[in-house]
Design a protein that fits this description.
Shape of chain A: globular
Oligomer: heterodimer
CATH topology of the largest domain in chain B: Alpha-Beta Plaits
Structural class of chain A: alpha/beta
Distance between the termini of chain A: 52 Å
Number of strands of chain B: 6
Number of helices of chain B: 5
Shape of chain B: globular
Low-confidence stretches of chain B: none
Number of domains of chain A: 2
Strand content of chain B: 35-45%
Strand content of chain A: 15-25%
Mean pLDDT of chain A: 94
Number of strands of chain A: 21
Distance between the termini of chain B: 19 Å
Strand order of the largest sheet of chain B: 2-3-1-4-6-5
Structural class of chain B: alpha+beta
Helix content of chain A: 25-40%
CATH class of the largest domain in chain A: Alpha Beta
Low-confidence stretches of chain A: none
Largest sheet of chain B: 6 strands, antiparallel
Radius of gyration of chain A: 22 Å
CATH architecture of the largest domain in chain A: 3-Layer(aba) Sandwich
Mean pLDDT of chain B: 90
Number of domains of chain B: 2
Number of helices of chain A: 12
Largest sheet of chain A: 7 strands, mixed
Order of helices and strands of chain B: EHEEHEHEEHH
CATH superfamily of the largest domain in chain A: ANL, N-terminal domain
CATH class of the largest domain in chain B: Alpha Beta
CATH superfamily of the largest domain in chain B: ACT domain
Chain lengths: 434, 144
């Protein structure tokens, strides 16, 4: 179906790819040691010197980096490049604490764009496509990241950003948008607004692909979107600390390709910090191999995933990570049990009577945590017999319990009552006082 | 025989929701013949017989309500002791199950009108007919 952006690199035999990674790992370790006071100090504390890193396996000797390090060294204390080489900053919103600043050299922007050019090509996009970027522009990395990636493959970019949904839909029709990049929750909102406007995305637009990310979403949501609109919905992954959105699934949709010439990934058991085998869940750890303003060594994002290091059916040899189960920051602990909002989503989106929008409320009643899941009843799910509605509520509750192992109250609410989001959806309100 | 179309709505149990329903219908000039609210804690179902159910359905849908149309029977009931018994007993003896029912009295007020949702509307119509129970037509409901 689709070609390659950089076939030489993307299909490089594993042996050569590993040799390239090894060279770049050694270089980046030497580079941060020489240029970042933070890393020199860290390496000293860990008793490791650049010369100790001779093979890829030696990565385990290196100390970890965490988000808290970026916060503690706010704004640019961890940068390796001098200010004169920095051409751009992005800043995270800091919803879970102090904001974090990331920076890019000219070359870093090139690498970032190249990563997305490969990704967009792998889902079949090229210079004939019109890519509507519905991620936020500005300090958030989503908008500009996709923008540069799509321009690099020669596609026409429609930089709409977030919001103004009716206008987005009109432009989608008028300019013949073929691909849209936004959060999955925002796309669900676009679907809803299009329907209200009497526009069928399937029949009245040329949209064929969606590139959805910046928040975890489930396979069940993918199925809903694809069934309703006839597009192919692809997962995109990345985080500002390692540049922004960087990697997507290819057209085969069996995991997200992480470009091994740019990043070295490890998937570790969070308890022992030892690597887990392919196919087992662990914490994703990134080492940037070709990034110069803010290189990161063994950065623990806190995302849980499964790695597949076998070459893909599409011919690309780079390792793949499976759909992110959730970020440890998003994990709720309810009555001592770990709950990821993405698990709730996967249960709900498999129940046809439940609408596309939902939220979780957590409260503490006395000593007990109470989780309430609010879902919108669809027109098709509505029966005017109270008994049927009670049964439906019980069914949702039972299926949630089957997956989460804790009981949840289920509230059926009217369509349109749960707040819609333009960017990252806020699915959880935790009213517990800690 | 065109059956009477009842309009049902899913509503959350919070202040002002029923008022919003009434206002939507009033603005559209649709008259409510009969209404009942069944509640189940944090939500409820409003069921209504309207003079113009098609129009009522349309305006409620446009105002983003979750709404459905259901075929119901409107049965004239003698406004005397035993009036209800005669009807439900006939249905019971003939194994027709009543999902729910509600009654209203018309302006002419000799008889009460019983709205019934049953599991077998054709059979209910037949067995009640055999007992000479009068079943109102769609036109009669509209003309009240």
């Amino acid at each position: 179906m689709s070609g390659y952006w950089d076939p030489h690199i993307e299909r490089m035999p594993l042996e050569d790819l590993h040799a390239l990674q090894e060279d770049r790992l050694k270089s980046v370790v030497r580079y941060v040691y020489d240029h970042s006071a933070f890393y020199r100090q860290r390496f000293k504390e860990a008793g490791v010197e650049p010369g100790d890193i001779r093979t890829l396996a030696d990565v385990s000797k290196l100390p970890f980096t965490r988000k808290v390090d970026l916060r503690d060294n706010y704004p640019t204390g961890m940068f390796s490049a001098p200010k004169s080489q920095v051409v751009r900053y992005h800043v995270s919103s800091g919803t879970t604490g102090k904001p974090t600043v990331v920076g890019y050299t000219k070359g870093d922007i090139e690498t970032w764009s190249e990563s997305l050019a490969r990704a967009l090509t792998s889902i079949g996009l090229d210079s004939d496509d019109v890519v509507q970027v519905g991620y936020g522009y500005g300090l958030f990395t989503g908008g500009l990241g996709l923008h540069y990636g799509a321009e690099r493959i020669g596609a026409a970019v429609l930089p709409v950003g977030t919001g103004n949904t009716e206008r987005q839909i009109e432009l989608m029709q008028d300019l013949g948008t073929t691909a849209i990049a936004c959060t999955p929750s925002y796309f669900l909102h676009i679907m809803e607004v299009a329907e209200k406007m009497g526009i069928s995305i399937k029949k009245d637009t040329q949209l064929k692909a969606g590139i959805f990310g910046a928040e975890p979403w489930s396979l069940e949501t993918r199925k809903r979107i694809e069934d309703a609109t006839g597009i192919n919905a692809y997962d995109i992954y990345g985080t500002s600390e390692i540049s922004g959105p960087l990697f997507t699934e290819c057209h085969v949709k069996k995991g997200i390709h992480v470009w091994a010439d740019m990043f070295l990934i490890e998937v570790l058991d969070p308890k022992t910090d030892e690597p887990v085998a392919d196919g087992e869940t662990g914490e994703l750890v990134f080492t940037t191999l070709h990034k110069f303003a803010l290189p990161l060594i063994r950065y623990r994002i806190g995302d849980l995933t499964i790695m597949d290091s076998e070459p893909c059916e599409c011919g690309r040899t780079h390792p793949r990570i499976m759909r992110i189960l959730g970020r440890t920051d998003d994990m709720l602990i309810i009555r001592g049990i770990n709950v990821f909002p993405s698990q709730v989503e996967s249960v709900l989106m498999d129940i046809p009577e439940v609408g596309d929008h939902w939220e979780i409320l957590v409260d503490r009643k006395g000593p007990l945590d109470m989780m309430t899941v609010r879902v919108e009843l669809t027109q098709a799910g509505f029966s005017d017999k109270i008994g049927d509605l009670m049964k439906l509520r019980k069914k949702i509750s039972k299926e949630l319990k089957g997956v989460l192992n804790i009981a949840a109250e289920v509230d059926l609410v009217e369509p349109g009552t749960i707040p819609r989001s333009m960017g990252k959806a806020k699915r959880v309100t935790d009213n517990r006082k800690v | 025989m065109t059956e009477i179309k009842q309009i049902s709505l899913f509503v959350e149990n919070r202040p002002g929701r029923t008022a919003k329903v009434a206002k939507t219908l009033s603005d559209a000039g649709v008259n409510i013949r009969a209404l009942t609210i069944a509640e189940a804690g944090d939500f409820g179902v409003i069921r209504m017989v309207l003079d113009d159910p098609e129009k009522g359905y349309k305006v409620l849908k446009e105002n983003a309500f979750t709404v459905s149309m259901t075929d119901v029977l409107a049965v004239e009931m003698k406004d005397t002791p035993g009036g209800l018994y005669e009807i439900v007993n006939t249905l019971g003896l003939n194994s027709v199950n009543v999902d729910y029912a509600y009654a209203f009295v018309t302006a002419k007020a000799e008889r009460a009108m019983l709205i019934l949702r049953v599991d077998d509307i054709a059979k209910a119509r037949r067995v009640l007919g055999e007992k000479n129970v009068k079943i109102a037509t769609k036109e009669e409901i509209q003309a009240i």
